[in-house]
Design goal:
Length: 257
């Protein structure tokens, strides 16, 4: 088990990548604080993890709240004695997020608040705890859209993911000599309910698939599997990276095969 005895905090753990990663962390021996604004979701996850014999605790945390983020980290230390891994993963992708002309200012502010400020607050409160533990790991979920346009005109979301990548590099270099590694996980397009709902005709689906070198969307679990790698000593020399799990989308500007 690669994470035996490690204590990790996951934000946005009620669904998708966060939920799947929290389960993999537990399977690798970590003690998990699963947090989300969706309390029912994290409670359900925790019941599953503890039912399987893992040590886990669910917390309702809004990452935009400094006091919630402080509570999240304090609870990890009070409950399990330390913090080793912080997975900043919560996000919002607002339905009103479009091109700058049509996007309401409130949508911009909310997106930046959850996606960027939330990760900043996680780091602000998490880093002192990681230092108290003698070092540790931070994973910030960015996106392939931080590197390539999504083609969808999701201005606020794409900008927020770019900011996360830039912030990740900054923090990684600042703390590299103090035994904290910080990486951005950059997933490509995944076969989620949200995406499948938006691709509601065969034509729309095919228009997307033609840009994917592997000819398919990724699965949530395929991205989640990168999290224990980035969190463990298996990735001991991986730092400040944009760690892409994208099926090769970023590898070409055109798919000719
Ligand atoms: N799904 C994809 O195709 C894809 C692609 C690239 C990047 N990503 C990134 O991966 C990460 C996870 O994506 P997902 O598809 O699993 O998302 P998801 O929507 O399934 O999960 C996000 C979670 O964040 C929580 N959340 C929202 N606002 C919050 C707040 N203020 N405080 C705390 N929690 C809050 C939600 O309740 C939800 O459980 C995100 O950062 C996303 O941007 C996803």
């Amino acid at each position: 088990m690669r994470l035996a005895g490690k204590v990790c905090v996951v934000t946005g753990a009620a669904s998708g990548i966060g939920r799947a990663s929290a389960a993999l962390f537990a399977r690798e021996g970590a003690k998990v604080i699963a947090t989300d604004i969706d309390e029912t979701g994290v409670n359900g996850l925790c019941d599953e993890l503890t039912g399987d014999g893992a040590e886990a605790l669910a917390l309702r945390i809004d990452v935009t709240s400094a006091s919630d983020c402080e509570t999240m980290i304090r609870t990890a230390e009070e409950t399990f004695g330390r913090l080793d891994i912080l997975f900043n993963n919560a996000r919002i992708l607002h339905p009103d997020d479009g091109d700058p002309v049509e996007t309401p200012e409130e949508t911009w502010d909310l997106t930046m608040n959850v996606n960027v400020r939330g990760m900043f607050l996680g780091c602000k409160h998490g880093i002192p705890a990681l230092l108290r533990a003698g070092g540790g790991v931070i994973i910030n979920t960015s996106s392939i859209s931080a590197l390539l346009g999504s083609g969808n005109a999701q201005t606020a979301y794409t900008a927020s993911k770019g900011a996360i990548l830039a912030m990740t590099r900054e923090i990684a270099v600042a703390y590299a000599k103090r035994n904290i590694r910080v990486n951005a996980l950059c997933p490509g397009p995944l076969r989620t309910e949200l995406l499948m709902k938006s691709l509601d005709t065969e034509e729309k689906k095919q228009r997307r698939l033609v840009h994917l070198p592997m000819g398919r969307f990724g699965e949530v679990e395929e991205v989640a599997k990168a999290a224990p790698f980035l969190a463990s000593d298996d990735s001991s020399f991986v730092n400040a990276s944009a760690f892409m799990v994208d099926g090769g989308v970023a590898g070409a500007y055109i798919t000719a095969f």
